[in-house]
Structure formats: structure tokens, C-alpha cells
Amino acid sequence: MNTDDDVKQFVTGVVSLQKDPSRAVVIAISHDAVFDLKEEQEPKAPAAASGVLNPGPGFPFVKAVQRVNEKLVEKNPNETLLFDVILLSSKDRPKSQSEVANSIKHYGLEITRLCFCNNENFTSVLRSNKVKLFLSTNTDYITKAQDTGVPAALLYGQRGTATLDQLRVLFIGDSLGFSEDTTDRPKDEDTGEDQLQSVQLTQSSLEDLVALIGEMRRKFGRENSPLCACLMTVCSPRNVCVRALKRLRAWGLEVDEAFCLAGAPQSRLLAHIQPHILYDHGLQYTLDVPALS
Amino acid sequence: MSLDSRQAVATHDGRADASVAANGDSKGSWGDTEDSYGHSGPVNKPKSGAVRRARKVEGGIFFPKPENAVTIAVSSRVLFRTETEQKVFEERGVEEYLKYQVEHENEPFAPGPAFPFVKALETVNSQLRELYPDSEELFDIVLVTYNHAHVGVRLINTINYHNLFIERFCMTGGSSPIGYLKAYHTNLYLSADAEKVREALAEGIAAATMFTPEKLIEVSDTQLRVAFDGDAVLFSDESERIFKTHGLDKFFEHEKEHENKLLDHGPLKGFLEALGKLQKKFYEKGHRLDCPIRTYLVTARSAASSGIRALKTLRAWGLETDEALFLAGAPKGPMLEKIRPHIYFDDQMFHVEGAAEMGTIAAHVPYGIAQKHPHKKDSSKSK
């Protein structure tokens, strides 16, 4: 790994709540999901100020995460289990880097690191930064990350309607609910050995992530929590959903909301649930999800 | 391809279902063998299409698309008896309540007031499947509860225990279920919470509040029977308004004058319509006399006078009930006791309570003028 590629820019002037980097739940998100970088198109709204970018689909997520951190610290000023959001950016857009740094400060975002990478080294950048969760609107990158064992989820974007007050995380549980022996998994020609291995690899990192989210969730009561975990099964019968519930519970997370669709169309339900992020291994069950509205 | 390029997930946006094809033509992966959950698939269908990307449920079970089915949403408190747990919630708060539920996770709940109704819907479904194996025009029962997902395990364990055919559920963790009702194209919502029912009615969804009665008389297990009050249930409350403000004589006068003017529709008209559509499917296969769905109009109107307008309205709407009982003001209890519906809808709590006293499963539709001027029970009458 060429360390030149893994360049971090520390954003100055941003106050960080992090007390202990080893305990931080690092979430990496592409900078063009947090800010609207499209220069080619008509800007949707005039820029907030000169040199500052407009919010992108991942912006509400960042704000919601920040609120969780604030509430955690409110409960315990020495809290070490906090979210740590880092941005990923490719190097070939130097102009946007300063705009990103300015925008972070302008919106008061708690982001202290901007990591540069390209197609080739992006997964090693994730690993070296101990990223626990990678978020994107790009399904290729999500799959790439998942294949190398880093849990990755889809940013669910309904621009303008996502809440900033509560971080909402949705797990698609159809594969979580299958029993240990794979006989009741859907039989498919392309479930090769590699596929199964990557599933197992990501599964153990997913377990870690779920345990951490569960730990954070337990610090708040059932009502008015700044963090809400949801489970949805898309095309499985009810018992698969129950098994998924129990599995998440075994890993340390009691979800707040559960939905068993059993084949009912997803998009209307999702539009109502309004998760910020949607975790679905292999993206097999989220075919009609609009990533961007 | 740089990190900056975005690639939206294919936005089929509802038209993804086109790949699963229209009603009846879907080529899912269901077969005719029993799956591990003990449900047998209804039809012999060849396996075709990609299994992994199939929108149909794995394991050989076929579920209708919500817009094609008659969707009935029931809350956990009406499907099952949860009084003990309710008490824990009211006396000790939500955290204790959830702990209690999890501790008793493997104890199934007893059947609640909506249980016989749901069982009857399933009976109709199995007969519909036999006659029309490819059709999605079935009853689809969805459990919609604002319970937290902690209670989910116990609820599903109970569904399994009672062998109910409910595969879809929404546990909203405390937020309003109304948006989910709309997302599921709900045709009827049954809940123990009058506030939620009122909200649903305000959104144009047929809804009624159910109460757990002291005793329940036996109902048929071969024929679904649904009974409706007329005014403010099938019809609007316009005539009731006249009655409440100007009295009985004025009411009769008004009805006579407007005999040929159609009444406006009430909140349950759509549900009667949905039942009628399913009934026609049985008639078309020669099951008119022994149709497993039977509907009743039970109204205080009189056959000879005010009832005429009701009948004319139904006819103009292309609807009919199998039986129309005009009680001319007589108490409804005894008549309902004879009919033994799986559910009876009335807008007046007085009638709902009266029916429940005699063991009839009655549901209150909190709609119209009767909610502001409830009928006072005449203390001189004994029952």
C-alpha cells in the first residue's frame, strides 16, 4: 500500500467530540454524497454563500449522526463510543477540496478528516482508517466494499424530507433471517464459494457494527431516542423476519421498528419509513429503491 | 470511474412490479410442496424466473400485491387479548411493558375480538384460491401495530400458534400507523384505539374500533358474515343530522321528499363494494346460493318508508346486501344475535354496546353526528 495515496487532510477549525479514536465508530462517506458538487448542471438552489456547496443527499445523515453524538456526550461527557464521520474524495478535483473544507465549517459539521483515494486503493483506504461502515449512493462501490469485508450501506435519499432529529438505520433482514445451514437460502447459480466467503467476512464485521449500534442505542430510552434502528424483510415469510429480529438481538441490537413486506412493493413503505441508510448485503433486495429522489 | 460519479440504483419506482407481471400472470417460484413453515403452496406452477431477484416470497407462498387484494389491517390488541400487558403498560410504563413482553415471549396470546373475523377471511381465501388459482383478488391480512419490535417475536409466535395466515406486518415502534395503512392500500383498519380509527377515517380509510366483549357467541366457520348499519356507515350521516336536530317526524318527511335522491356515501361503502366484488367471483363459478360471503344491512329505518331511499341508493351504486333488515327503531341486539355476524359495524356506541351485551362482535365507526350527540340509553327499558 502506497502511503502517499492515503493522504488525510485534517480540516482545521472544526471542534471534535472524539475522546478515544480506538472506540470511535468510523463511518466513511463519499464527499459528493454530502455536498452537491454538480457543476455541469443548473444548481438546484443558489449556493449558501460563495465558496460553499449546497447540501447533498447524505447531508441529513451527517446532521443526524452529529445529534446522536451530542446526545451521547450529554449523557456522559466522557463518552468514548461516538460516531466519527470521515469524507472520501478523489484527488483529481483540487478546487472542490477547499470548497468542501469551507462547507464543513459553514454548516458546523463535525468532520475532521478528508481522505483521498481513487478506484484502485479505495478499499485499502477504508481498512487503514478502520472504517466500520461505508456509505454511498453508488451501488458498485457498495458492492466492492462489501466484497472485501467492510459493511457498506446505501444512502437513502428523499431530498428535503429526511429528518435531522433522529438517525434512522434500516437493515434489510432477508439474508439475516436464514438459518445457519444454507439449505433454505434461495438457490442460485451464481452463489459460488467466493460469494459465500465474502458474505461470511462481511457478516463478522456486520456483527461488530450491529453490536456497537446496539450499545449506543441502549444508552437512550425507548422513546425520544436520537437513534432508531429498523428491520425490514422484503420477500420472506414472517418467520424469517422473526429470526432476523432474534439474530440482531443476539448481536446486541433490539430494533425499534420491524416490517415484514412479504412481497409488497418496497418504495411506498420506504418513503414512509424514511431511513437515512439502508443496509442490504449484496443489494439483492433493494431493487426499486430510489437512491436519489 | 472516479469516486465522484454517482450511479443511482435502478429507479423502477413501483414499476419494478412490472417485471413480476400483472395480476395472475406472475411467474414466481412457488411450487406445490410444503415449505418449512408448514404452509403448502396453492398451485402447481413450474419454477421459472430468477429466484434471487424474485419479488415473490421464498418458500412457496404466494402473496397478492396490496393494490389487487382486499387489505385488512388489524392491530395486535384486537386480534389478540392483551389486557394484562395493557395494564402493565399503563401502570408501569413502556420499559417495564417491553420487558414483560420479552419475558413472556413464548406464551401465545388468546384470541381477541377480531380473531373470528380473520379466521373467516382465511376460509374465504382458501376457497377463492381453489376456484381462481392465479388471482390476486384475495383478502390480505396485515398486522399493523404501534408496538415496538420487541413485541414482534411474541406476536409472531402467537400467529404461528394459532395457525393464522398473516405474513405481512408493520411494527411502528410508537409512531402513527396511518401512513403505513395508506402505503398498503388498506381497505379496512380495525383497532382498539378510537383515536387511530378516527385518524384513519379522516384519511379516507374505512376503519372501526373494536372492544373485547364479556362473552362471544359462536359464529359460522364456513361463511363470512358481515353486517352494516346504514346511516353514517354505508351512507353519510345527512339523514341522521335531520333526525337529531329536528326529530323523527321531520326525518320521515325529509326521507319521503328525497326518496329518489341518492344518499351520499359513508366510510364503509368501499368495503361493502370490495366484498361484493369477491362475491361475484363466487357467483360466476356457480356458488350463488352457498356463497361463503354473506352481507347484511341492519338499519333502524323502516321498510315501508325511510328504508326505500336506502335501497334505491344501494341499487344505484350497483351494490346490494344479501339481506336487509329494517327494524323501524326496534333494538338491534336480538336480530344480530340471530345473524351472528363475524363483525357488525355501527356508528352509535349505544348500538355497539347493545350488540356486545348479547355476544355479537360489534365495531364502532366513529363517524358523523352521532359522535357529538350520543344516544342516551333509556333507563326505563330493561334490555
Automatic annotation (TrEMBL), chain A:
Protein name: Cytosolic 5'-nucleotidase 1A-like
Taxon lineage: Eukaryota, Metazoa, Chordata, Craniata, Vertebrata
GO molecular function terms noted in the UniProt entry: 5'-nucleotidase activity; magnesium ion binding; nucleotide binding
InterPro entries in alphabetical order: 5-nucleotidase (IPR010394)
Source superkingdom: Eukaryota
Gene Ontology terms: biological process: adenosine metabolic process; nucleotide metabolic process
Gene Ontology CC, one term: cytosol
From TrEMBL, chain B:
InterPro entries according to UniProt: 5-nucleotidase
GO cellular component: cytosol
Any one GO biological process: nucleotide metabolic process
Chain segments carrying region Disordered: 1-50
MF-aspect GO terms: 5'-nucleotidase activity; magnesium ion binding; nucleotide binding
Protein name: 5'-nucleotidase, cytosolic IAa
